[in-house]
């Protein structure tokens, strides 16, 4: 009953005219950027961070959440009609959805994707509403020791699982930790890594870093390497509505995808890619027409799309209840919280209940808005695909520059923006994930603070991290995530040596 009352209070916040308008803008922008190939939700939220600094935090965060799950909806349109996954989580949708479009069934593919996203979005928000208070009650028992261990787990998971290489992920993380330490040490008053530059005494603004890495760096990369790729847009022929048979083949994958996506998305190592591929494999196994998979099976669109959207809500659940970002977009949303001096986590439910429950309530409303926006306006979204890419990239860079300068009217911020942007471009060029940098930058100083508090309590004895059961368990999980994949890879390579490996030596 207490949860229901809190949710009703949240609806009162989310239903104000201003928040409804911001939620509408968020889901519309999210759909728009989801449709545009290469422009993901992380880039968009990063781009809007400076522009929303003067807004009410509740309204701004409602808009950012709308962008996040709106982009998940919009990404399916690009995947189905253009065979270009906007996000890695929509690769499976591109596989089956584009084949359906080639066979003249783009309408049913778009419909099952949109309705499945609505079903999954609603079910996963209900799960979030039920689970969040339980996780928060557990997390309220955390002390500095447990918090530090959880942050170590966040560092390890984000570094080792986002990207193709653990070494690159860890390098990105340490770069972020270094940036986060620049400035005056709050305890000793000593300047750290400022290189004698007075402007760095206050540290580097996380918004400037986020916009530089995600907006400037990503745009430079897209303009340099992906601008010349030719696209073929499949046309929507016939009705966009599903037949009775399509409904019968879709509703079970929607439900299964929802219950698969939310818990995996909420795990520190989950993300949206694993549940979408799992959902695809399960639907192929359970389908009465397995021969259609690979040629445009509607179950192969319905299940993975539902899992994708449920996973995005699961990611937000982890961020809101524990304060851990498990995806690049969640890392940027964490930066948005930081912009308002807020730290997501269990204490936020106590100190800002209207903000948190208003945000959760806005997700219910946002899902309805997205269903209304997506299908009837599909023609408009298709036209967006014809925007010349040079104009798009130029607009993003101008908006990023104005936003960063508007934060403090500082030329030094602009210089930092483009230095960090060039670093982001090089990271993208050499396949180094940028999300660990932002996570390290934001959580690094907080982890340092918790470490100091824990060691102060134990009078300098580091064994405190292993004598507290929750802390020890979390550290063991982090250790297994760090050493497990390389060991597993080595065992697998011994069992299945590469063909020709024995003759490669001179």
From TrEMBL:
<feature type="transmembrane region" description="Helical">
    <location>
        <begin position="152"/>
        <end position="184"/>
    </location>
</feature>
<feature type="transmembrane region" description="Helical">
    <location>
        <begin position="118"/>
        <end position="140"/>
    </location>
</feature>
<feature type="transmembrane region" description="Helical">
    <location>
        <begin position="61"/>
        <end position="82"/>
    </location>
</feature>
<keyword id="KW-0812">Transmembrane</keyword>
<feature type="transmembrane region" description="Helical">
    <location>
        <begin position="434"/>
        <end position="451"/>
    </location>
</feature>
<feature type="transmembrane region" description="Helical">
    <location>
        <begin position="411"/>
        <end position="427"/>
    </location>
</feature>
<dbReference type="Pfam" id="PF01970">
    <property type="entry name" value="TctA"/>
</dbReference>
<feature type="transmembrane region" description="Helical">
    <location>
        <begin position="316"/>
        <end position="337"/>
    </location>
</feature>
<feature type="transmembrane region" description="Helical">
    <location>
        <begin position="390"/>
        <end position="405"/>
    </location>
</feature>
<feature type="transmembrane region" description="Helical">
    <location>
        <begin position="204"/>
        <end position="223"/>
    </location>
</feature>
<feature type="transmembrane region" description="Helical">
    <location>
        <begin position="463"/>
        <end position="484"/>
    </location>
</feature>
<keyword id="KW-0472">Membrane</keyword>
<feature type="transmembrane region" description="Helical">
    <location>
        <begin position="20"/>
        <end position="49"/>
    </location>
</feature>
<feature type="transmembrane region" description="Helical">
    <location>
        <begin position="357"/>
        <end position="378"/>
    </location>
</feature>
<keyword id="KW-1133">Transmembrane helix</keyword>
<dbReference type="InterPro" id="IPR002823">
    <property type="entry name" value="DUF112_TM"/>
</dbReference>
<feature type="domain" description="DUF112">
    <location>
        <begin position="20"/>
        <end position="438"/>
    </location>
</feature>
<protein>
    <submittedName>
        <fullName>Tripartite tricarboxylate transporter permease</fullName>
    </submittedName>
</protein>
């Amino acid at each position: 009953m207490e949860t229901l009352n809190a949710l009703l209070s949240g609806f009162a916040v989310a239903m104000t005219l201003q928040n409804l308008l911001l939620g509408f803008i968020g889901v519309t922008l999210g759909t728009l950027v989801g449709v545009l190939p290469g422009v993901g939700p992380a880039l968009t939220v990063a781009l809007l961070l400076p522009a929303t600094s003067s807004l009410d935090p509740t309204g701004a965060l409602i808009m950012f959440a709308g962008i996040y799950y709106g982009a998940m909806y919009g990404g399916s349109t690009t995947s189905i009609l253009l065979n270009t996954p906007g996000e890695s989580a929509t690769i499976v949708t591109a596989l089956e959805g584009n084949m359906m479009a080639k066979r003249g069934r783009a309408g049913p593919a778009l419909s099952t994707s949109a309705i499945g996203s609505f079903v999954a979005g609603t079910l996963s928000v209900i799960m979030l509403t039920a689970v969040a208070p339980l996780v928060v009650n557990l997390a309220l028992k955390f002390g500095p020791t447990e918090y530090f261990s959880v942050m170590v787990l966040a560092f390890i998971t984000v570094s080792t699982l986002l990207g193709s290489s653990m070494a690159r992920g860890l390098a990105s993380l340490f770069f972020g930790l270094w940036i986060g330490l620049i400035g005056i040490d709050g305890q000793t008053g000593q300047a750290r890594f400022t290189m004698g530059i007075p402007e760095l005494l206050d540290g580097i603004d996380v918004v400037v870093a986020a916009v530089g890495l995600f907006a400037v760096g990503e745009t430079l990369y897209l303009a340099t390497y992906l601008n010349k790729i030719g696209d073929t847009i499949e046309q929507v022929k016939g009705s966009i509505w599903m037949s009775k048979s399509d409904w019968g083949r879709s509703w079970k994958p929607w439900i299964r995808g929802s219950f698969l996506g939310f818990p995996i998305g909420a795990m520190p190592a989950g993300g949206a890619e694993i549940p979408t591929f799992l959902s695809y494999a399960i639907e192929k196994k359970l389908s009465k027409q397995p021969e259609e998979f690979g040629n445009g099976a509607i179950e192969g669109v319905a299940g993975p799309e539902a899992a994708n959207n449920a996973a995005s809500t699961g990611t937000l659940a982890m961020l809101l209840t524990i304060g851990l970002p498990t995806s690049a977009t969640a890392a940027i949303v964490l930066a948005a919280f930081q912009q308002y001096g807020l730290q997501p986590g269990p204490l936020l439910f106590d100190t800002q209940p209207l903000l948190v429950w208003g945000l959760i309530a806005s997700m219910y409303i946002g899902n309805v808005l997205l269903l209304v926006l997506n299908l009837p306006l599909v023609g408009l979204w298709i036209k967006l695909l014809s925007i010349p890419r040079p104009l798009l990239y130029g607009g993003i860079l101008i908006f990023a520059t104005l936003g960063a300068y508007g934060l403090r009217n500082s030329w030094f911020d602009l210089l930092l923006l483009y230095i960090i942007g060039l670093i982001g471009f090089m990271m993208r060029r050499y396949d180094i994930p940028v999300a660990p940098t932002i996570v390290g930058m934001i959580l690094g100083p907080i982890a340092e603070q918790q470490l100091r508090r824990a060691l102060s309590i134990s009078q300098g004895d580091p064994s405190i991290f292993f004598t507290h059961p929750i802390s020890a368990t979390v550290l063991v999980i982090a250790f297994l995530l760090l050493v497990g994949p390389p060991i597993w890879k080595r065992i697998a390579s011994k069992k299945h040596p590469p063909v020709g490996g024995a003759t490669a030596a001179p």
